[in-house]
Write a structure and sequence with these properties.
The complex is a heterodimer of chains A (351) and B (267).
Chain A: E1 23-35, E2 42-55, E3 60-64, H1 71-78, E4 86-91, E5 94-95, H2 100-106, E6 107-110, H3 123-133, H4 138-151, H5 167-179, E7 185-189, H6 197-213, E8 218-222, H7 226-232, E9 235-240, E10 243-248, H8 250-257, E11 262-270, E12 285-294, E13 297-305, H9 310-320, E14 324-331, H10 335-346
Chain B: H1 2-17, H2 19-43, H3 58-89, H4 91-96, H5 102-108, H6 111-131, H7 141-169, H8 173-187, H9 198-204, H10 208-222, H11 226-261
The chains are: A alpha/beta (351), B mainly alpha (267).
Amino acid sequence: MTLGRTESVSSEPIEDRYTGPGLRVEQVSKIYSRRKYWLGPVSQMEALRCISFSVRPGETLGLLGPNGAGKTTLLKIISTLLYPTSGKVEFFGRNVYENPVWARKTTGLITCDERSFYVRLTARQNLAFFAVLFGVPKKTANQRIAELLDTLGLTDSADRPYQSYSSGMRQKMAIARGLLSEPRVALYDEPTRSLDPLSARNIRTWILSNRERWPEQVRILATNQLVEAEMLCDRILVLNRGSIIAHGTVRQIRERWDKRDYAIHRISCSNLLPDGIAAAPERGLISVDHEPVEDGCSVLKMCTRKNSGGLSFGLSAIIESGASVLQCHTDEAPFDEVFCSLLMSEAGDPS
Amino acid sequence: MRLAWAFFKRDAVTALSYRISFAVQLLGNLLVLGLIYFIGKTLGATPLPALQAYGGNFLAFLLIGVALTDCAGVSLLTFAREIREGQLTGTLEATLLSPVRLPAILICSSLWSYFFSAIRFILYLGIGAALYGVSLQHANVGAAAILFLLTVLCFMGVGILWAAVVMVVKRGDTIITTLGYAVLLLGGVLFPSAVLPAWLQKLAQLVPLKHALDGMRLALLVGTPFSELTGIVWKLVLFTAILLPAGFISFHIAIQRAKQNGSLTEF
């Protein structure tokens, strides 16, 4: 690995000559070496092990994993705050460690650290300061700050000192700072960690809307909120103890790691006789529950054994009874259930 | 320029927002002036041969000693304090995420402190001249300005070097305090270094503040022409040429090390 100190920044737009992934992480490993005491033995802790993946422009990659899995370490390596022990990171084909200044211009890291602002300065003063640091021209900066404050609902409190802000407002400030320079690579590190459900939902909706606003932006979202990953990410990468243990779309991961041997279906029917359908475990239909009739529709909740033909049997039984099937919805396994199943499989727990 | 102003404004707003602290700081500076006056008045009556080279006025000697040492002290402490505060508040990482190069961040983050230090320097001299009867009529202001600048640059190097140490050891208050006392002893801040034993005088040659004070006193109190100060100026240039790059290189290494071992935000 080369950790360059100098760099040549080409003025040539990268898009003109580059068509590869927006972000490529190649064989990145991170080992922390520490001495417990002066001249004592060196202990080593492997934080990341041979991590490789890439993200296309416009794509959002979710980083999931339990606490200590290496998500934040990986984001810090990508943003050049931390050097990997081996491997490399490229933005649009350029090694970030050989072009650190350019890389930092290209990146926005949205941390969940509430402390990283100047507490005596107002929100506007803080953002104006960081806008200068990120080289945003003054006119654009004022406009962008006003826009971000407005979008994040901070306009009314923009001239209050940062220290008077609540956790949620501070989190919004971190988001505003990270996106001030309209970075081509946005790294979100648990952006809704300390937010109440309503604020979290607003932030998620806003992040989602940014996909349209900056269609070429590369986004990585490290989160422990599985709903968030499901809602915002095109692909998921699951880390555990520094290694990638699963990689794919939410659907692929759900299909691969859903360990339930049953499925639950909600079927809306008309003209269904009460208790007209009964369970038939030998045919794969484990149970049938009749839910209260709504708007003249009967709703059946059927539990079937997976890949047993239980659903077909149940639907046939409904039709044979003279009723009509209006709608059939199969409940997916909650993603947190799938995620736990994945982690436990990784830990060698067959349950 | 915009970057420098952003840092200056950030620090000015922060400093002025602590109104009582700011007022007390000003009061403290006035008390120092009172202290200088009474020490000078008590001891100034007896002419010391060692002071003759600087015009013979102990009060004036002391005033310039304290004023310039204050400036050197700012250099020594500002950078390390900035780093330490940045580590404690998390702003260091946020600043290092920006594309601004490290030397620019360091220099810009010291501007307010230097500005305030320059104000204090002028205040000390102004009050000294107006109220204490310190004569600056023959002062070689141009030479004094050059010496002031060189002192700032030279101690900036030491300060950045020290910030690199703080980056690694996190807490080093005791080391810097001890170093500060050594500089006070050898630099000739409160008394002429000519009264030190010969071996300490030799050691004092390695302290840039000694040369800076010698030059500043000669320029301001005696009005020594620049041509006679070139020896001192060259010594300060040499110290600056060694210490400033050493500071930046050490700090760069400290940051690289912190990025390697993940200790950037440890405190």
